[in-house]
Amino acid sequence: MSIRFDPMAPARTCLGGNGACDDPGEWWNTPPNEPPPSLLYGRWYPSTTGMHDGRVFITSGSDLVGGILVWRRQPEIYDPSVPPSGAIVQTPAQALMPGGGDLGYYPYVFIFRHAGIPAIFWLGGHNVEAYRIYPGDLSAGWTRISSGNEPPAGLRQGSAVMYLPGKVMKSGGGNVTINGHVGATNLASTVDLNQTNPVWSTPTTMNYRRKNHTLVLLADGTVLCRGGNFISDQGLEPEDPLYDHYDYRKSEIWDPATNTWHLQDAAMAQYRRYHSIGLLLKTGEVFVGGGNWPEGAPPTYQRFTPHYLQGNPTRPVITSPSVPFSVAYSGYFNVTMTFAQGKSISKIALVRLGSVTHGLDQNQRYVPLTNFTQIAQNTFRVQAPTSSTDAPPGNYYLFVFDDSTPHNVPSVAQYVKITSVTP
């Protein structure tokens, strides 16, 4: 199933299909006396992407029709603004997803801006072609956006992340034949969708070949790659002895500023493969848990401490706002904080709260807040994001960083909700 938190109605959680192919979707936490809408199609493993206007774009997934597996090529949209509990909107026939054959489970689908217009990016299945469509003009259909240098190897059970507004990194996945097995690649590529004619970068190399891994945006905008395996789709079969030296309990971190991968010394207590998760916490640490394993899923969890918290540094403290708050686009808010002696502010950023499944969280966002000015000692006036495609409406962590070296140290985050209206 694909889980999407509805930012406009906090009591409701949307599931775009589930484990039964012919199930049209379920809803959790639905308020009493508000019957939820059903999806138009049964979908097994679709992607659900929050859009700039608070609606949810639901795409791909498979279904059983007369005992035959079919791919759901027609997207649909959930609109939470329709009373009492939202509505499912049919998309025009021209919005039928391109290509043929396998669309892929949980394709990579992100919202971004193209020439100032909200657009949706799609990359999925065993194809390497990427496409875009404009939510405001779905009848125009999909357009291929990159004609060369696409990411190598198949996308099956890799992962992707929008690490900055409009910028996507795809890593791993497997249809590479090595030692007689179809295994994972160790290549990663980026694409800048903000460009008029986006082109995938020359791939970089992860330390390990991985599939079924999770990419987690960290508080400072770097990306944690954790878990995974080399061969098995479900994480249940033995691995190839050739790659037994890969300790998949170890994670690696990708730095977008240098486009480099750094293997971490710390190892998880268990291997975490398919169905494992990684979520950023307000402390700046990462929660990891679950995962398939031949002996069964480990009923445990751990926390990972990133580089910016190692050595137990003294952290900035946000003293005001002291409770979660809301702000409208382009609005301003004040932040008061304390720093360790001799330290001062270096940057402020938002990170969207996570919602991961099967190694993918297409709604992750890291949004730098660059427009801030000091108005009193340790108090700064900060402007909220100006674009709802850069920062779709919903709930975010607000992190403030000091100017420590070699790593700026973040505060424990405060919660902020970005809304389309003045709160």
- What's the architecture of the largest domain, going by CATH? 7 Propeller
Number of helical runs? 0
Average pLDDT number: 84
- Note the gap between the termini: 33 Å
Overall shape: it is globular
Going by helix content, strand content and strand pairing, the class is mainly beta
**Fraction in helix:** under 10%
Strand content: 35-45%
**Low-confidence stretches at least 5 residues in length (pLDDT < 50)?**
1-14, 18-28
* CATH topology category name of the largest domain: Methylamine Dehydrogenase, Chain H
Pick out its properties.
35 strands, Methylamine Dehydrogenase, Chain H, disordered N terminus, 3 domains, mainly beta, 423 residues, Immunoglobulin-like
Any overview of this molecule?
The protein is mainly beta. It has three domains: 1-145, Methylamine Dehydrogenase, Chain H (7 Propeller); 164-311, Methylamine Dehydrogenase, Chain H (7 Propeller), CATH 2.130.10; 313-419, Sandwich (Immunoglobulin-like). The protein is 0% helix and 39% strand. It contains no helices and 35 strands. The protein has strands at 3-5, 13-15, 26-28, 47-50, 56-59, 62-65, 68-71, 76-79, 87-90, 108-114, 117-123, 131-133, 143-144, 159-164, 167-171, 176-178, 181-183, 187-192, 204-205, 214-217, 223-226, 250-255, 260-267, 276-280, 286-290, 301-304, 317-320, 325-328, 332-338, 345-352, 366-368, 372-376, 379-383, 394-402, 414-419. The protein has a five-stranded mixed β-sheet, with no helix packed on it. Strand 10 (108-114) and strand 11 (117-123) form a beta hairpin. It starts with a strand and ends with a strand. Mean pLDDT is 84; it is low at 1-14 and 18-28.
